[in-house]
Every structure is written in C-alpha cells, then in structure tokens.
Amino acid sequence: xxxxxxxxxxxxxxxxxxxxxxxxxxxxxxxxxxxxxxxxxxxxxxxxxxxxxxxxxxxxxxxxxxxxxxxxxxxxxxxxxxxxxxxxxxxxxxxxxxxxxxxxxxxxxxxxxxxxxxxxxxxxxxxxxxxxxxxxxxxxxxxxxxxxxxxxxxxxxxxxxxxxxxxxxxxxxxxxxxxxxxxxxxxxxxxxxxxxxxxxxxxxxxxxxxxxxxxxxxxxxxxxxxxxxxxxxxxxxxxxxxxxxxxxxxxxxxxxxxxxxxxxxxxxxxxxxxxxxxxxxxxxxxx
Length: 287
Ligand SMILES: *[C@@H]1O[C@H](CO)[C@@H](O)[C@H](O)[C@H]1NC(C)=O
Ligand SMILES: *[C@@H]1O[C@H](CO)[C@@H](O)[C@H](O)[C@H]1NC(C)=O
Ligand SMILES: *[C@@H]1O[C@H](CO)[C@@H](O)[C@H](O)[C@H]1NC(C)=O
Ligand SMILES: *[C@@H]1O[C@H](CO)[C@@H](O)[C@H](O)[C@H]1NC(C)=O
Description:
Layout: H1 2-18, E1 59-63, E2 66-71, E3 82-87, H2 96-107, E4 111-115, H3 137-143, H4 146-162, E5 168-174, H5 176-184, E6 193-197, H6 204-209, E7 214-219, H7 227-240, E8 244-249, H8 265-285
Helix pairs in contact: 1-7
C-alpha cells in the first residue's frame, strides 16, 4: 500500500519537474520520414491486415465545410454506424501515410473520417526529421489554434452522428491529434473510446478528465512522453479506475505509428503492433 502510494507520489513529482518541457508539436529531430507497413507479420484474429500500394483508396468530401478524407469498410453496403474519427499529426490529411493508415482501419471494419484539421495548411512533409529554418512553426501554431481545431473536431463528430448515423464513435490520434483524443474523451465530448500513439502536449488535467476507454502506444525514444509523464498518466488512470491500456515500444521514436524506418525490426514491430492495438481496442469497446 505504502509503496504504491510513494510510486504515485514520485510519478506526480516527476511530472511537475518536467512539465515545463512539454513541447507541442514534439521535436521532430528523432523522426524518420519513413514508411508505413504494407503487410503484417502478426496474426490477430479477424484483422485483415493492411494493403499499402503507396496510394490511398478513400476519397475527399466536403463535410459541413471541412475537407475530409473518408475511408469506407469493405462490402457492398459499407456500414457507417461504427466509426473512427482520425485526428492527424501536424502533417495532416495531405500525408499519404495518414490516409493509408485510415484505409487500413477501414479494412478492419470501421468507417473512418479524417478531417483536415489545418484547413489546407499542414506542416510541410519536408519538415520531417527536423523543422527547417524556412518554416516558422510558431507562426503556424498561432494560426491553427486549439479553438479552431476543436471547432473542426466538434463539427466532424456532429456530422458523424447526424449525417452518417454513427451510433458509436472511436477516435485515433497520432502526435498532435492525441491531445484531442484525450480532450474529446472527457464526458460530453462525444467519443465512445479512444486510441493514441505518441500523443504530444497532453497535460495531466487532460488525462484526468478522460472518461471513456483509452489505449495509448508509447515509444521509448519519444521525448514528448518521458518515463515520469507516462507513469503519471498511468497513476491517474489507475486511481480513476479508468478502462485503459498503455504499451511501451522499445527503439520507437515520436511518430513511429505513422512513419518509421521499417528496415529496423523493433520499429517495424512497434508500428504494426500499434495498428493492431488500436483495432483490438475498438473491437472490444465500440464494435
Ligand atoms: C499511385 O498514384 C500515382 C499517381 O498519383 C500513379 O502514378 C501510380 O501508378 C499509383 N500507384 C498504384 C500502385 O496505384
Ligand atoms: C515566427 O513567427 C512569429 C509569430 O508570428 C514571429 O514573432 C517571429 O519573429 C517569426 N520568426 C521568424 C524567424 O521569422
Ligand atoms: C456544422 O457546423 C456547425 C458549426 O460550424 C455546427 O453548428 C453544425 O451543428 C454542424 N452541422 C452538422 C450537421 O454537423
Ligand atoms: C473498477 O471498475 C470496474 C468496472 O469497470 C468495477 O467492476 C470495479 O469494481 C471497479 N473497481 C473499483 C475499485 O471501483
């Protein structure tokens, strides 16, 4: 009992000392511009794996004023009543990896809706591996405020319910998008379950407000989720008796679930596993 308590205290204290180092978006210097896996070595029951020809197969539509990428589950009358809202990293719907990953989630039986959170103005993919000096990220952040991003997400959730008849909505969020999975998984946010990989800039208050089932994939090389921050989040979820799952992948950097160096076995394993982690989470809690 006592040791559990000191662990919790340590985690919280550890967090306090590192809280000033939260960076959103996370630094990109350890990121690999990288690929997304095209087949799975895993054999999870009933998940069809991923087809990656390098091109996405969904389509863009204007959904209540926002350019939105839609990926439908296979079948002649694809169901839209069980949906995944895909909240991207700073590279947005324009990054093919995000679209291919959305297609992959659709292949697992979900209708996937991925709004353009940045209104045609994502961070350019040339910034992977390090923001170039020619790109002013401070200015970019000032344009794409939390309020604007949240208005787009709220509109997407509303459209999913009203226009597409979604009865259950899960959300995935990678990097930047992870913060918003946490925020909209608070009671009244409109989500039924959430998954995030290497979320950036999530505060302890935001973790504490989460009410729905939440799964998180962390990587050991991700500076935006330090050991103390991960432990603090887990302590909060445990204290709340939240339905949650966290995994930690070795040799996995910020961004690994969306783009990584697939020639390195641990990174390839981490990316594939994060995909299956998300699918199994939604199979359990919203299907
Ligand atoms: C992918 O799209 C490009 C054009 O955008 C096309 O040249 C290429 O053939 C496509 N590849 C596949 C496998 O469909
Ligand atoms: C980046 O943008 C911010 C806010 O607009 C501005 O204050 C700053 O001077 C800019 N930095 C550079 C290097 O242009
Ligand atoms: C469309 O967006 C507006 C806000 O921009 C919102 O008030 C409205 O509920 C949305 N409509 C639908 C059908 O989602
Ligand atoms: C935790 O939640 C589960 C259901 O989700 C419940 O069965 C269990 O009693 C709860 N434990 C505590 C200590 O409240």
